[in-house]
């Protein structure tokens, strides 16, 4: 899901958290998994949701864009810049300022935007403000390409119609609420996955302690000793939650295999987000199965030989390989 959506756990930095629900569900900014003719993923500020920008902060929108750019670039050999589409035909002064200043904030530390496709404002005062905000100054240098479009039909000169929704003259089918449901469902798995990874070292160390317990000297006590430690092993396994994680993973994979059975899966089927998610889930399934097998081996022979300390750390990172 990186801890998105989307993005899965690997060695290295912890993936960024999922954007806040307020911005994720608003639909005021979207990352639908489509591209312009340069191959840059598109961020879209839909005209019919611009009023909701007033409920958000620029920092929230920047975090949203950064998150999904990170998820997209995770699978790319070359880190791609993104492009932005903003329909400002009927935009207010405050909306126009918000969008442009958000783009400046997004690019503050590093260039991230390749092109901005702007459907020009109809209102003269808004058009004047737009030009002013996009004019380079000492405090703000604009590095992205600015493409001004007079009306909707011109969008298809730069972005294939299969990559733009009907509101921008295309035929890409996009349901924002279904997209959100998919993102959140995958993130729920990622959170469970990370939780198991965090508990795994403690579980391994406990198994290590069990393996070092001395065997009873009396045969009459051996059965009770084995029963007690088998119960402890099963308790540790339940507390770890690895079996539940495996079942959760298999349930998600089944939905990915048959997306037509789930509306939110069907809504994103065929997009890079869906393809990357399916690939990651299959990898996670293999990791979890390997972890289950390793722990089962530890549990079936806890008193035959100790678990070496050098091996215990390898179990702790097993799921993240």
Description:
The protein is α/β, with parallel strands linked by helices and 321 residues long. The chain has 2 domains: 21-173, 3-Layer(aba) Sandwich (Phosphatidylinositol Transfer Protein Sec14p); 177-320, no CATH class. 51% of the residues lie in helices and 7% in strands. It has 10 helices and 4 strands; from the N terminus they run H-E-H-E-H-E-H-E-H-H-H-H-H-H. It has helices at residues 21-26, 58-73, 93-106, 124-134, 176-211, 219-240, 242-257, 263-268, 272-300, 309-316; strands spanning 42-45, 82-87, 113-119, 145-149. Strands 1-2-3-4 form a 4-stranded parallel beta sheet, with helices on one face. Strand 3, helix 4 (124-134) and strand 4 form a beta-alpha-beta unit. Helix 3 (93-106) packs parallel to helix 4 (124-134) and helix 5 packs antiparallel against helix 6 (219-240). The two termini are 16 Å apart. Mean pLDDT is 83; it is low at 1-13 and 301-318.
């Amino acid at each position: 899901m990186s801890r998105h959506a989307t993005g899965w756990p690997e060695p290295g930095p912890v993936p960024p958290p999922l954007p806040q629900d307020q911005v994720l569900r608003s639909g005021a900014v979207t990352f639908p998994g489509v591209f312009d003719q340069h191959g840059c993923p598109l961020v879209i500020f839909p005209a019919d949701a611009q009023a909701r920008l007033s409920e958000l902060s620029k920092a929230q929108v920047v975090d949203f864009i950064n998150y999904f750019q990170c998820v997209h670039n995770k699978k790319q050999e070359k880190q791609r810049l993104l492009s932005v589409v903003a329909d400002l035909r009927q935009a207010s002064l405050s909306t126009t300022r918000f969008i442009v200043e958000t783009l400046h904030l997004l690019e503050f530390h590093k260039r991230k935007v390749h092109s901005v496709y702007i459907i020009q404002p109809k209102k003269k005062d808004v058009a004047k403000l737009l030009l002013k905000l996009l004019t380079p100054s000492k405090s703000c240098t604009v590095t992205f390409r600015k493409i001004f479009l007079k009306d909707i039909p011109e969008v298809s000169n730069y972005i294939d119609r299969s990559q733009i929704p009907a509101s921008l003259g295309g035929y890409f089918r996009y349901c924002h609420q279904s997209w959100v449901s998919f993102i959140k469902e995958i993130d729920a798995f990622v959170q469970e996955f990370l939780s198991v990874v965090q508990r795994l070292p403690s579980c391994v160390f406990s198994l290590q302690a069990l393996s070092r317990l001395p065997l009873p000297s009396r045969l009459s006590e051996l059965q009770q000793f084995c029963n007690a430690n088998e119960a402890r092993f099963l308790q540790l396994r339940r507390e770890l939650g690895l079996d539940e994680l495996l079942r959760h993973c298999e349930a998600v994979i089944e939905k990915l295999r048959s997306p037509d059975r789930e509306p939110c899966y069907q809504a994103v089927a065929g997009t890079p987000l869906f393809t990357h998610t399916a690939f990651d889930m299959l990898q996670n399934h293999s990791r979890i199965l390997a972890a289950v097998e390793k722990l089962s081996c530890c549990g079936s022979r806890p008193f035959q030989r100790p678990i070496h300390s050098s091996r215990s750390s390898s179990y702790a990172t097993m799921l993240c390989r």
